[in-house]
Amino acid sequence: MATLDNLAAAFAGESQANRKYLAFAKKADAEGFPQIAKLFRAAAAAETVHAHNHLGIMDGIGDTVVNLNSAIGGETHEFTEMYPGFIKVAEADGNKKAKWSFDVANKVEEIHAGLFTEALAGMSKSAGPDYHVCEVCGNTVLGEAPDKCPICGATKEQFMLVS
């Protein structure tokens, strides 16, 4: 069991490193350091390889039905249990920025659970409309991006296409 615990810890660490390095790359690009940004993106890609290896060895990747059910469970836990508690603590601490971050994530996780549930109900191998993700709050929309994000108020231009 120690090895499985180590694989889980390694998966979490590699996953976090991937996200952190992508944020660092975005900052490096914004500050005019394109080569350093490329290095951060390359390292992030390598961390993804490591994370996927660890997850696979833990049998954490099933067929699409299993994966959708796992995603629904995870997203539902986040918006029903995890984030509501985090929001209360941030409010009690008076940390408005953290409360905002937890609040928008909470709203979007509920949307994700719904999208995964719809995908499970309508399992299809044909491609449908693309998704758009708000780069401010993470709101995820099937089809065209709205003119204004209903969660954070971002403009249509602040949605990225995911196909």
Give the SSE layout.
Layout: H1 2-30, H2 34-57, H3 64-93, H4 96-121, E1 131-134, E2 140-142, E3 159-162
Antiparallel strand pairs: 1-2, 1-3
Question: What would you say this structure looks like, in words?
Answer:
With 163 residues, this protein is mainly alpha-helical. The protein is 67% helix and 7% strand. The chain contains four helices and three strands. It has helices spanning 2-30, 34-57, 64-93, 96-121, and strands at residues 131-134, 140-142, 159-162.
Which features characterize this protein?
mainly alpha, Ferritin, Rubrerythrin, domain 2
Helix content: 55-70%
Number of strands: 3
User: How confident is the prediction overall: mean pLDDT?
Assistant: 97
Shape: globular
Helix and strand pattern: HHHHEEE
Q: Give the CATH architecture of the largest domain.
A: Up-down Bundle
Question: Could you name the ranges where pLDDT drops below 50 across 5 or more consecutive residues?
Answer: none
Number of helical segments with 4 or more residues: 4
The proportion of strand residues reads 5-15%
In CATH, the homologous superfamily of the largest domain goes by the name Ferritin, core subunit, four-helix bundle
Largest β-sheet summary: 3 strands, antiparallel
Structural class by SSE content: mainly alpha
How far do the termini sit from each other? 39 Å
CATH class of the largest domain: Mainly Alpha
